[in-house]
Design goal:
about 400 residues; 6-stranded mixed β-barrel; alpha+beta; elongated; about 45% helix; 11 helices
Length: about 400
């Protein structure tokens, strides 16, 4: 009975009811789109970091800090036998040294990274380095990323001078040939980095068998002489940024919900004001005030239900289409984000379900709050239209 009355009253509102439903539906679509796009960005960014640099974690020399280049030479060691026994697809040995590049008579400080050519754990565009043998010939072959090449004005085939210090502290310099400019989506392995063969870098610095860290696919437990840094530690800066983005998205979500709840709240206030005589008549005929409150609240709940239906009708085709075209983020190529390709939304059913549940709850609450004053209405004043002024 209450539901039938609520439906008739709701449909009788006409355009006001439709606008409430449309605003709520568009807010739901915006909420799901925002959350899913953020999920997609996080998934692709972390995937790129893992594939190009982090792996499943690093076994590093204790005290090694990538932000302290003057200390890199003091934090190298020969990896434990248990790490050396891992297959090439489960480990990647990396040696990092400080160097200076001299492009076009300019000084450009660089991070010299040597990586084993046999490894397949990290996805790096270094195939052109595999063409060279273990012994260094006339020039040292090296690879730089697109961002590094653009900043230093380098191109494939350039020959320039590279300077470094060996294990004993002696300064050495040789010509380096840029054999390739690789497209690296991760700025960590691109900006200011020159990639060499691991055996070449070891020979140049007199550090045979030494590494700065060993990236592994899976954690192998504690190993003497090295410390393990988890994926979370190695991606702490990115995770902090994504956490901040989550907080910002919650602020936007709150603004959307305030707009929706304000719309429903105002509609209910207007309903009560315009239907005072109707409410007074129902109360005079013996209908309990709480039942009238339930009828008005059901009208708000009906708006939430229709909003879900409209959101599904409009949102599902939009989400399917957007999943196919994605969101172009090529403008981030100059930023520090480890992502440049198209972002595709990542829809999490559980997250969407709880979000919709919260939206429906808030809409129902916004519909109930203004009508609860009906309990205190004087039926005689309501019949005269003067109960609410």
């Amino acid at each position: 009975m209450n539901w039938d009355i609520a439906k008739k009253n709701f449909y009788r509102q006409g355009m006001r009811a439709f606008l409430n439903v449309l605003v709520t539906a568009l807010s739901i679509i915006s909420l799901i789109f925002m959350l899913s796009l953020l999920n997609g960005f996080q998934a692709q960014a972390t995937r790129n970091l893992v594939a190009t640099d982090v792996g499943g974690g690093h076994y590093r020399v204790p005290g090694f800090d990538i932000l302290s280049p003057t200390e890199w030479e003091d934090h190298t060691l020969k990896p434990d036998e248990s790490l050396l026994k891992l297959s090439d697809k489960d480990k990647a040995e990396v040696l990092v040294q400080q160097g200076q590049l001299y492009p076009n008579r300019r000084l450009y400080p660089v991070q010299i990274r040597g990586v084993s050519m046999e490894q397949s754990l990290l996805s790096l565009p270094l195939d052109n380095l595999k063409k060279y043998g273990e012994q260094i010939e006339d020039v040292i072959p090296g690879v730089v990323g697109v961002k590094m090449a653009r900043k230093a004005h380098l191109k494939k085939g350039d020959i320039l001078t590279l300077k470094w210090r060996d294990k004993s502290g002696a300064v050495d310099a040789r010509d380096i040939l840029i054999v390739d400019v690789g497209d690296m989506v991760n700025p960590r392995v691109d900006d200011g980095v020159v990639w060499l063969r691991l055996d070449h870098l070891r020979s140049m610095t007199d550090r045979q068998g030494e590494v700065s860290w060993v990236a592994v696919r899976n954690y192998m437990g504690p190993i003497d002489g090295v410390e393990f840094q988890t994926v979370e530690i190695l991606m702490a800066d990115l995770l902090a940024l994504l956490k901040q983005d989550r907080m910002n998205s919650k602020i936007l979500w709150a603004i959307l919900m305030i707009l929706v709840c304000t719309s429903v709240f105002n509609t209910q206030i207007l309903n009560i004001f315009k239907r005072q005589k109707e409410v007074g008549t129902l109360m005079a005929l013996g209908m309990e005030p709480m039942r009238i409150v339930r009828i008005f609240t059901l009208e708000g709940a009906l708006a939430a239900i229709w909003a879900l239906v409209i959101a599904a009708l409009l949102g599902v085709p939009f989400f399917i289409w957007f999943q196919g075209v994605g969101f172009d983020v090529s403008h981030l190529s100059e930023a520090s984000f480890p992502i440049r390709e198209t972002i595709y939304p990542d829809y999490q059913p559980k997250e969407i379900f709880y979000s919709l549940l919260i939206v429906v709850f808030l809409v129902v609450m916004a519909a109930w709050l203004p009508v609860k004053k009906i309990i205190r209405l004087d039926p005689t004043l309501a019949l005269r239209g003067r109960a609410i002024t």
